[in-house]
Amino acid sequence: MLFSKNVKSSAHCLPSPDGRYIATLFPTLINVRSVQSWEPIHVVRLPQDFIGPFLSFQWSPSSRLLLVASVDQIRVFSALDANYHAAIRNPVAPHLKPTYVDFGASDTEICVMASFGLKFAVFDLTSSKATEIGSPKFSSSTAVRRGFSFRPQSNHLALLTRTAGKDMISIHAFPSRELQRSWAPDTIDAQGLLWSPDGRWLVVWESPALGHKVVFYTPDGNLFKTWSGPVNPTHEEKDFALGAGVKTVQFSPDAHLLAIGDHSRSLSIVDMTSTMEVLRLRHPDNLVPKGTQQIWQERIGISHGPIMHTFIRASQAVSPPPRPHEAAEQLSGCATIAFDLSSNLIATRIEDFPSTVWIWDVQAAVLRAVLLFHGSVSTLSWHPHVRETLLIRCEGDHYNSVVFVWDPLSEGPQSVDFSQQLSGFKAVGKWHASWLGLDPSTPLSIFYSDTQNYVLASLADSDRDSLPWINPRNPQGGDGPSRAESPLELVPATADKADEADALQTGDDGDMVMEDTYGYKR
């Protein structure tokens, strides 16, 4: 395993979706670094009237543009071209702030959600126009993504709104976002909607308080079918209708399967070819090793050096650790569902056993592996381009800057400890880790960042393997953390004059003032 050199970071630091660049937002500038050369390739100086605190910092889907949002302004810059700059002033009403700002279905579309659910606005940077839709149902930062969805290929927007106690779904064309159709779904209190990856289905699920219900619509809004719970419930599930309903819904990448998690310990798999339930997966509370099933138990070694995380394969029956009784809130049901790239494996986490990861083979209808950790699992992320490779993060003092990588051929999860690459041997502020979405021909790489530094880790077997960056620094087991890069090194000295000229060009004369147009109202 090899690590890159430390680089100065901030609270806003993200790799591009294609994995080729890393952008860091500072109070007065944005630094864009090439992963391949590990050198700064572009610096965007922020306008003087554009100051924090910043609410959102995002890459565009094509890895070409960068979005920065404050309370009263949204700025869009090119990651490589100093001549591109767009500005949206006062995207929401005065005295309010956006709860969500991000790119829409394309690089030239910006979506903004106003607080208190007053409106959902879509800004078109090409035409300098805006479409505002009133009364979106979900406006909080944690739930807003459940309230709208973009259809693949055609980029149609489906939005869930609620007025006078009644749910409505509206379909808006791309790129004009003109209303094409709206209807009242067959729900009382819908909790979300989602397009299938092939764009053939729009699914809407009911509130868990109102039972098990998932409604399937065709793209033109016609009701096709309703799923009302397990088809053949087991003896333990015979009274499922009395329990809470749907909690999580997730399509497979190939759009052939839909996984539905409720507040029980089971997971339903629907075949989208026939929209029929074909499989019911139940998380057992007693694990017995058999056949090729893998059950890995974590061991934590604490000494004067770094904390060691190792895994042993269980040879006898074990039980996953339950949620502590002293927990502030007793939760249940499937909290996380994640399909891998091949659509053959599903990783799940249920609230009943928060420190356990369950990996299912849906083709064989078997439990492939169970990973037992000491700390609660917070995130599960399959690699975007490599099949059957999972990134896991846990919570707790023993997991500071540590993530785990699992694949079916490994001898248990492999720990990746970034703390040994940091100057203070621990994260400063909040930290996050994610896959670097590079071409699958390069070794697997992980991006890590806290509020002071960011670093890359390559899972290459040796330094002779082709690495994403040039001249890797500090291989694992070296002489300690590499020197953190000074902020003065973030801006190439030869680019000072050019950057200064670029900053002058991104003033008011270069702004794109968006025209407010009211596009949809019931």
Automatic annotation (TrEMBL):
PANTHER family according to UniProt: WD REPEAT PROTEIN 8-RELATED, WD REPEAT-CONTAINING PROTEIN WRAP73
InterPro entries: Centrosome-WD_assoc, WD40/YVTN_repeat-like_dom_sf, WD40_rpt
Protein name: WD40 repeat-like protein
GO biological process: microtubule anchoring at mitotic spindle pole body
A single cellular component GO annotation: microtubule organizing center
Region (Disordered): 467-522
Domain of life: Eukaryota
Record organism: Neurospora tetraspora
